[in-house]
Amino acid sequence: MIFRKGIVSVLSALILSLSLALLEYTPEAEQQTGVGYFSFGGLFFIYLIFSLPVYLIGGSLYSIVVDVFLGRIQFGNKLLKYVTELIIYVAGGLLIMGIIILMLTLPDGNNGGLYINRVFILGAVASLLFFHISLLWRKKWNSLRDKV
Questions:
Q1: How sure is the predictor about 108, in pLDDT bands with cuts at 50, 70 and 90?
Q2: Which residue, 98, 68, 72, 66, is CA-closest to 85?
Q3: What's the whole-model pTM score?
Q4: What residues form the membrane-spanning segments (predicted)?
Q5: CA 24 to CA 28: how far, in whole Å?
Q6: What distance in Å separates the CA atoms of residue 53 and residue 57, rounded to the nearest whole number?
C-alpha cells in the first residue's frame, strides 16, 4: 500500500508541477526586455521541489488513514462512496495546506503577502488530483491483477 501511495504521490507531483509550470510560463515571444523570467524547466523544477515532499509526506499519510477508515465502511452505492471520498480528500487538501500556512506564519505572525485563498484552492486541486490518480491507479492495478 505504501509503495502504491508513493507512486501516486510522484505522479501527482509531476502532473501538478507540469500544469503549474504551463500556467506560469511566459513564452519568449511575450517576454519584455529587462525583465527576468524563469524558463519552463526552471518553473517545473521549482514546483516539483515544493510539491513532491508535500505529496509524499502529507498526501500519502493522509490517504493511508482515509483508506483504513473508509475500508471499515460498507457503501451500498458507488456514487455515494465516490462523493464521500471526494469530500474527504478535499478536506485533507485544505487541512494539509492549513498546516503549511500555520507553519509559515508561526515564526512572526506575518503571511508575507501569501494569498491564502489561492493556497487553499491549490490544496483542494492538488488533493483532487491525488485522489483521481489514486482511483485510476487502483483500477489499473486491479485489472492487471485479475489478468494474472
A1: confident
A2: 66
A3: 0.83
A4: 45-70, 82-103, 115-137
A5: 13
A6: 6
* Nearest CA among 130, 129, 103, 124 for reference residue 114: 103
Report which residue type is found at 49: I
Question: How is the chain split among helix, strand and coil, in percent rounded to 5?
Answer: 80, 0, 20
Which grid coordinates are listed for 114? 501569501
Integer Cα distance of 74 and 136 in angstroms: 21
Burial label, 47 (beta-carbon count in 10 A; 0-12, 13-18, 19+): buried
In residues, how long is the chain? 148
Could you tell me the three cell numbers for 21?
A: 509550470
Of the candidates 83, 109, 107, 93, the one whose C-alpha atom is nearest the C-alpha of residue 54 is 93
User: What b/e readout covers 66-88, taking b as 16+ CB neighbours within 10 angstroms?
Assistant: beeeeeeeeeeeeeeeeeebeeb
- pLDDT at residue 106 greater than cutoff 90: no
User: Among residues 43, 19, 33, 27, which one has the least CA distance to residue 126?
Assistant: 19
